[in-house]
Amino acid sequence: MVSSPHEAMHRIFQHDPGVFTRAVRALGIPFDGPISATPLCTDLTENRPLERRVDTLLNIETKRGTFLLAVEAQGKKVPDEQRNWAYYLAHLHAKYEMPAVLLVVCDNRNTAAWASETVDFGPPEWPSLTLRPLVLGPADVPVIDDPVQARRDIPLTVLSAVLHRREPQADAILKVLVDALKGLEARDPDTATIFVELTSQGLGESPAAKTWRALMTDLSFFTSPISEEIREEGRAKGKAEYILLLLDGREVPVSAADRDRITSCHDLDTLNLWFTRAITATSAAEVFAEE
After folding, report:
1. For the stretch 37-54, what's the b/e string if a residue is b when 16 or more beta carbons lie within 10 angstroms of its beta carbon?
2. Which of 23, 65, 178, 198 is a good FRET partner for 224, with 20 to 30 A between their CA atoms?
């Protein structure tokens, strides 16, 4: 199953293809900024029962010319994946008759090191094809924790947050990102919402996701699904606390399991029902009684 971080790691390039240029310049690779970028079909399947798809495929036009950018999000080492990448590049070159660059985005340092390997295909006496992907991993994308830099380049800050989400610097990145998004919302609320969603998706179930959810409570201007979900969770948490305070105040015995059942419930209708029962209940069983 495709994970949320996997989707975010390549979708960010769909929303701002220029983040590719800005990210790889830090590696000393002088790509020109795109004049235009056109999404292309990601299906690389031939007329046979074998399906191959690249995650994101963009036709990038710069002042020096045009090239294809194939973006692959890679969360772990996969046997024979480099053989698939070599196929992608050869197929794209033959199909579109233009040069292609493979960008592999990794949120794991070991995976990034593996993906960066140069791989030769062919007999050792004379390899006929060499694979040399461009890789962006936690070691390649800087930690953006400066508010000015974050406001200047929100897409790159989102990518920084996603790739460093398992590292101690993640919280600092998210704090400056929230401030930058507040400023963007005043100018372009739709774009701000897109980057909120990409960040939430890219953080997945990492510890940094909890920090992000806490920070998101300050972003009351967003009406995106993730922000609505966070506010709903906040209301549910408050209602659960009221139920426990009421039961404790009335000296109704509540076991650890019952407390956990109340605090882990996120359905407001159920919590409202339990709260009403807690007003008169003499035991936790009466609170949870079936209709």
Report:
1. beebeeebeeeeeeeeeb
2. 23
